[in-house]
Amino acid sequence: MKIAVIGAGSWGTTLADMLARKGFAVTLWAYEADLVERMRRARENDLYLPGVSLAAGLDFTAELATAVAGKDLLLLVPPSQVLRVLMQQAVPHIAAGTLVVSASKGIETETLQTMSEVLEETLPTSLHSRLAYLSGPSFAKEVAAGMPTAVVVASRELEIARLVQDVVSTETFRAYTHTDVLGVELGGALKNVIALAAGVSDGLGFGHNSRAALITRGLAEMTRLGQAKGAQAATFAGLAGMGDLVLTCTGDLSRNRSVGIELGRGRKLKDILAGMKTVAEGVKTSLSTFRLAQKLGVEVPITEQMYRILYEDKDPRQAVVDLMARDLRHEND
Ligand SMILES: NC(=O)C1=CN([C@@H]2O[C@H](COP(=O)(O)OP(=O)(O)OC[C@H]3O[C@@H](n4cnc5c(N)ncnc54)[C@H](O)[C@@H]3O)[C@@H](O)[C@H]2O)C=CC1
Ligand SMILES: O=C(CO)COP(=O)(O)O
Asked: Which keywords fit this entry according to its UniProt record (predicted)?
């Protein structure tokens, strides 16, 4: 099977390396042409996955058309806000019958569309039944180090999910199948917003009680919004929901949680982002999720406060006061 991985950030590079080690012919497309040159020479992604020696058989290119042409499977791992433009450029070169798997976690800010909605709008209808989504608790660094990891592969067609499950699973990377595409992709996107909030709480010096409250009430609002959009509630109790939420709200490797910690300590968003070359998807997804929730008439109190901290420069301490002062209610309302 010939595979192209689109996006050579830490996650795309890790997955490309994993699949190349499994014996597939893998081409990794990077946005940065100079990075391609360095990866070819040193077999290391010094920008996004330093210290990991990449598989001998892994191929690199900065040409998107070359990357996608003649492949059996495309694994899409760019930041979610650029998926649309990349697909618009790639479409004329994608062969009929290609499997297309998205592993990005986010919601477009302009359209409020999820990755499945973006792909269904940009790819020809003939490819829609060949689409799948990879999500779940998976820090790239830990996967690259071969640490046991469990993820979900969702597709509306169970057969396609099974096919992709077989392709991506290894001795240390265990994929489960799912058919709730929306639930699986929303779990991955929405947890980043809650992870930012958990970071803010840590940065403010709050403790385990606060974090547990944010995780649990965060899951409640993720589920509520997901259901309003047509996802199944049970999906949010699985790897792509609860699993990834716990990972990113507690793990020191989370970029979203790290950004939240800095905000909680009083740093300004633009200063934090200026020093970052990696993507913290939750920053943009806070904006899209808050707008989406308003559009659907769903209450998302934690996301709303995160949006106000990020986009209205609200003092994080005031955000906590406002969250705690909301009307008292039943847990399941
Ligand atoms: N890193 C991780 O542990 C995991 C990341 N993800 C998701 O994977 C996606 C990619 O994230 P990472 O691999 O972590 O990226 P990263 O933060 O390591 O690197 C940034 C990436 O953005 C690309 N980029 C920047 N500007 C671009 C542009 N204008 N056009 C195209 N590409 C551009 C860079 O080339 C690079 O690939 C995100 O949606 C993230 O949420 C999902 C699971 C795990
Ligand atoms: O999605 C991730 C792990 O599943 C990575 O989280 P961060 O983007 O917060 O690092």
From this structure: Cytoplasm, Lipid biosynthesis, Lipid metabolism, NAD, NADP, Nucleotide-binding, Oxidoreductase, Phospholipid biosynthesis, Phospholipid metabolism
Tokens standing for 58?
Answer: 């892994």
Q: Minimal CA–CA distance to 80: which of 284, 310, 241?
A: 284
CA distance 133 to 138: 14
Protein residues whose CB sits closer than 6 Å to any atom of ligand 2: 105, 137-139, 192, 195, 244, 247-248, 254-256, 281
Q: Whose CA is nearest to atom 6 of ligand 2?
A: 254
Residue limits of CATH 1.10.1040.10 in the chain = 182-324
Q: Looking at the chain, which residues constitute the CATH 3.40.50.720 domain(s)?
A: 2-179
Which segments are annotated as binding site?
A: 10-11, 48, 105, 136, 138, 140, 191, 244, 254-256, 279, 281
ipTM of this complex:
0.99
Domain 2-179: assigned CATH number: 3.40.50.720
Q: Which ligand is nearest to the CA of 284?
A: 1
Q: What is the pLDDT of residues 134-157, one digit of tens each?
A: 999 999 999 999 999 999 999 999
Which of 1.10.260.40, 1.10.1040.10, 3.30.565.10, 1.10.510.10 would CATH assign to domain 182-324? 1.10.1040.10
Q: Which residues contact 274 (CB under 8 A, 6 or more apart)?
A: none
Q: Which ligand is nearest to the CA of 114?
A: 1
Residue of 42, 60, 61 whose CA lies nearest to 51: 42
Residue nearest to atom 34 of ligand 1 (CA): 9
List, for residues 86-120, the tens digit of each pLDDT value.
999 999 999 999 999 999 999 999 999 999 999 99
- The sign of the torsion formed by the CA atoms of 35, 85, 230, 319 equals positive
Higher pLDDT pick, 275 / 286: 286
Q: What is the pTM of this model?
A: 0.98
Residue 320 carries which side chain, given as an amino acid letter? V
d(CA 16, CA 100): 14
Q: Which atom of ligand 1 is nearest to the CA of 278?
A: 17
For residue 107, the 8-state DSSP code is B
Give the other-Cβ count within 10 Å of 92's Cβ: 9
SS3 state of residue 201 = helix
